[in-house]
Specification:
Blueprint lengths: L1 H33 L4 H13 L1 H12 L3 H26 L2 E3 L2 H21 L3 E2 L1 H24 L5 H9 L5 H33 L3 H13 L1 H12 L3 H19 L1 H6 L2 E2 L4 H20 L6 E3 L1 H22 L2
Antiparallel strand pairs: 1-4, 2-3
Amino acid sequence: MEIAIAIVKILGGFAVLVWGAERFVHGAAATAKNLGVSTLVIGLTIVGFGTSAPEILVSVMAALNGNPGIAVGNALGSNITNIGLVLGSTALIFPLVISSRLLKREFPILLATMGLGLFLLWDNELSRLDGAILLGTLVLLTLWLVRQGMTQPSSEPLTAEMENEIPKMPLSRAILWTVLGLVLLLISSHFLVDGAVTLATMFGVSDMIIGLTIIAVGTSLPELAASLMSAFKKEPDMAIGNVIGSNMFNLLAVLGIPGLLSPITLEDHAISRDYSAMLMLTVLLFIFAYGFRGPGRINRLEGGVMLAGYIAYMVVLYFSIHS
């Protein structure tokens, strides 16, 4: 009975989390649009932050509940899932061509963010100072994205794609959806973490393993849906942009906020296994998608390679649990 209740909490939490995240993103984006914020700035900041809202809320809740392993596993696992499962499966179905110059500028920044995270976590500790550095970097990155969004020409491919994604609604309704979405995120993340901790305890696995697997996949569902829909609508820059933005926010906010709230000692394999897997998939994405001599492209073969990398990582996790 206890297992059944935990599973219901997890499944129900995921369902409300995904729906609440969608309401929050739509409401916040429409609110900003009503207030005169440019389309590209909305897409680069509000939408990027909003698609990471499930990870952020779940990690904060986990840290407050004394389960920091879930927070770390969620951040690293979500980034691995976003590249390997989300982009890999998307490119396998719809090959992606990247023409946005702005995304090309974001790729090196994503790699630099990964390098910063590795430097701070190398001692297997996520301290309050580390959390403050990550959040400070997030502020600087957001300011840079806003500046880029304000100075990009209207011909920037992302602008047209994002224009189609921002819903048109009155300001009052937009604010209502923003508040409602945030409330739903808070409630669902609480039930999700509670159910996940129960399962981890009953099956004798660590909080971090639960964060790397069940929680990471569940909180990445908004990115999966957004990337598949963007690719289906022939908006490949949006599909890639969703993942790049989400992964940067995941590292800086999803790790930074819990670190600031509750210092964390990482598990033994967090760097050698999990962070390394995230870094290798990110490098693969950079090589495949950057387009050194023209538009970048992730074809079906490259999508299959990224998806195979994700599956291989899951196999390694499985054997590490049962060793």
